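Field notebook, page 346. I keep forgetting to write these up properly, so this time I am using the form the group agreed on. The chain and the ligand, magnesium ion, are recorded exactly as supplied. Prediction of the bound pose follows.
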Amino acid sequence: MIIDAKEKIDYNELSKAAQILRDGGLVAFPTETVYGLGANALLREAVDKIFVAKGRPQDNPLIVHISSIEMLEMCAEIPDKRVYKLIERLWPGPLTIVLPKKECIPDNVTAGLDTVGIRMPSNKIALELIKLAGVPVAAPSANVSGKPSPTEAQHVIEDLFGKVDVIIDGGKCSFGLESTVIDLSTSKPYILRLGAVPFSILKEILEDIEYDPSILAGNILSVPKAPGMKYKHYAPDAKMIVVKGKIHKRIEKMKEIKKDLETNGHKVGILCFYETAQNFESQYKIILGSMFDYKECGKNLFSALRRFNHLGVDYIICEWGEFGIEYLALENRLLKASAYNVIEVL
Ligand code: TXA
Ligand code: MG
């Protein structure tokens, strides 16, 4: 069943979806970050279905979505005031907090860890759905494992139609990048996944916060602390090459690579910014956004990768530069999508 909630929420329909969710079915729903594939987080069998539908490795834990502080306290221990400090500023919103888990959360939600990642989404449909279901909702991104995360209902339909009970269409996601995951289960606050809440904002709230440096390195150097960060991710069908450097140098290099590949008969896509787009002659050119607007670029990234799949290109050449700290989450997704296939031009 597909529920159209793009214009307004029909509470009759949403109640039906909530009932299905509570009873152990799978419901894909919009959040402000990406679409989630939800199951009742209290039912082991329901949670198992998520792993099957997505083809997700069993050792990758799920985020539990909640709609109230009571639900938070039911699912996790609150070790200290840092948690309330963060949620006061950033919930509901795109921040996931990893905390010691409580008994009611089955092991398959947390992949056997004694911690659980929790977030209260700000998307109205998501919040209302969880409220109506009356239970915490375990939900990874609603894509087949390894594919770009879904930022429109159409992406969920492409990946999961026939494998889930309900898909709720809430239009385009406003952030388009997943939530920031932060670990507060130990004394030192640590960012496990960069995401929609920029590092700079978290630093304002918790001064001693750091991020896992392996996030921006190839996974050869170190093993990331969030289990999910180690997997192949966001992969488009084409081979992706990130060309990183100063603007004129990278444009020159991209043109050179494009020419070589095209001479060899390949179909080459270009992922660029508004400001640089006129430098590239191509019918397979997609503009990510303005290079001065990390939010716009973040919002468009995953749908751009999916569009390249539809265009059927063999290669995607993507540009990148030295940008501010707010761009780190986006850079992380690009690097992962390219399997760390980066050419740096100096
Ligand atoms: O924005 C989002 O976070 C979206 C929407 C649907 O909320 N969800 C999402 O879920 O991106 P998923 O499963 O695709 O990514 C969850 C990430 C993974 O990297 C996972 O390893 C990490 O969070 N994670 C979850 N629970 C954890 C835990 N207890 N300890 C460490 N990492 C955890
Ligand atoms: Mg995911």
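OBSERVATIONS:
- The mean pLDDT is 94.
- The longest helix spans residues 294-311.
FOLLOW-UP: compare against the apo run.
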